[in-house]
């Protein structure tokens, strides 16, 4: 049992999941399933960004979907209106995410808890309105079509489903790797100290504002890059990409998988994405179906699937610790009372 538990929380599990993702196109029923999985990976990248600011740092950013839209529109405007190639536009999308994230974070993070959440909710609505009304820049309600796809190389054509799937998978792997490095670093421990208590963090000499803004910028860069990839695959975007519902969808993905965990964002995103696909015939009743599911999840698994599993593992380890100590003490007592062997007597002499 211990071996099974350790496997599900080890690097071997992550390598197994990567292997399954690599072989998925060869076992999928058709290109549509591959496309759905690629889209789930794109949303998972954005959810990893939300996990940094909300899961690790404890700040609920309700404008996250707006920064996703900023990245998508940066790629769309630069490739369609200014004839830029995709990759330079993609890098600029990440830069825009960082700049706007810094400006918004500098103002909003002076607020705490629900005041911060309400402020960022307003920011999300402002982004949506600006995109919808700025016809000269964003084409307004008409949206932008014929967005340039990622340029391939050699025989690799990213306009085809399978090559694009592996491109998105590579970016997702990079996002998970960076998140893991952040989580295990001093910076990640700093974020978690802020999540626990601002006063505790300050007593440890942590600069609250600087670290909160850094977490906010990192999260918006993730979202902007995800939005840029999204624009490159769908090749048409409109103001709906900045809808606040996208932010709530990402919160749901994070809650289902496990907030503040490494594998929670990808697990929650995949579960809800494929459940949505299986319940397409009930699209009109989507919220009626998912609403009670989320309520039950919050009641019985408040830390999400991965978080609840890790909490169970911690409780199990705590229960087993006294038994292990008793066994060690008994073994030590036995060694002390048994007669010394000839080799031990010689060593003692």
From TrEMBL:
CDD domains, alphabetized: TM_PBP1_LivM_like (cd06581)
InterPro entries tied to this protein: ABC_transp_permease, LivM-like
Source domain of life: Bacteria
Keyword field contains Mitochondrion: no
Organism: Salinisphaera aquimarina
Assigned keywords, A-Z: Cell membrane, Membrane, Transmembrane, Transmembrane helix
Segments for region (Disordered): 327-349
Record's bilayer topology term: Multi-pass membrane protein
Transmembrane segments: 12-28, 34-53, 60-80, 86-107, 114-131, 162-179, 213-238, 250-275, 287-312
Comp. bias intervals (Basic and acidic residues): 340-349
Annotated localization: Cell inner membrane
Protein name (database record): Branched-chain amino acid ABC transporter permease
